[in-house]
Amino acid sequence: MNPPKMKSKLVLWLALVLSAILWPLVSSAGIVYPQAPAAGEKAALKYRLGVFDGFFRSFGISTDGLTFGRPFGVYVYRGTLTNLLSGQLLSLADQYAWRYPVMQGTNDMGAIDLKSDQTPGKYLTYAEGSFPSQRHYDDPTVEALRAAERFPRVQRQDYEFRYLNMEPEHFTAVWLHGQTDDILIPLPPTYGRMNAWQPYSAKQIAAILGPEAQKESAMWAKLFSQQKKLNQP
Q1: Any domain includes 10
Q2: pTM of the model
Q3: By the 8 A CB rule, do 103 and 66 touch?
Q4: 141 inside domain
Q5: Do residues 31 and 150 make contact, with C-beta atoms less than 8 angstroms apart?
Q6: What pLDDT, on the 0 to 100 scale, is given for residue 200?
């Protein structure tokens, strides 16, 4: 008969072995979503009922079973051309809104953007909505999410799912924010500047968009200069 101490050591050893075997099955890295404001879904439902449902019915689209997918942050780049040329990109992106995907089963039906508001208990305000064209709605972020789940880096650590909009660069992307790095997945149209659905670093995107924005800025400056000369007596 084994002494009590030997039994306790054996049980502890078995627990450690089993946890090492089962841990990869119960804890895997991947895409994570931030915690949206508590009042967000209630506000999104208010605007869905007031805006979306009538639009759907006008196209003969059933509103039965509509739900919300997992909300995520919408970020807007606030930097200048100088910032972009120096490689500053994601550090100058601020959250503008929360996006609530509108779902019907597994089908994407549109999305509602609510402006961010950190005031406790205050509803988020309606920013804009994405509606289906006739009976079909294509959400490019869904394709980006499918692509992201296959990236080796995403399988090694967690990345927060975000959406990035850069104007006037006409660039949108899914932004995967990790603890050690960030991944940008350009969304169409990319205007031939980069490949949609492929992973890029912020440095790579800045290197593509910076010179292009500089050329466009120089072009507009030249046009304004010419217009000013024409308007002179």
Answers
A1: no
A2: 0.78
A3: yes
A4: yes
A5: no
A6: 97
Contact indicator for 209, 181 with CB cutoff of 8 Å: no
Residue 231 is assigned to a structural domain of this protein: no
pLDDT(23) > 50: no
How far is Cα 206 from Cα 23, in angstroms, rounded to an integer?
39
Overall domain count for the chain: 1
Burial status of residue 172 (CB atoms within 10 A of its CB: 0-12, 13-18, 19 or more): buried
pLDDT tens profile 93-117: 999 899 999 988 888 888 999 987 6
> How far is Cα 60 from Cα 38, in angstroms, rounded to an integer?
32
Q: What is the DSSP string of 181-210?
A: -EEEEE-S--TTSS-TT--B-HHHHHHHHH
**What is d(CA 88, CA 202) in angstroms, rounded to the nearest whole number?**
8
Residues 161-199: pLDDT tens digits? 999 999 888 999 999 999 999 999 999 999 999 999 999
Cross-strand pairs, 100: 112
Residue 114: in which H helix or E strand, if any?
Answer: strand 107-115
- Asked whether 200 and 185 are in contact (CB, 8 A), the reply is yes
Q: What CATH number does residue 111 fall under? A: 3.10.500
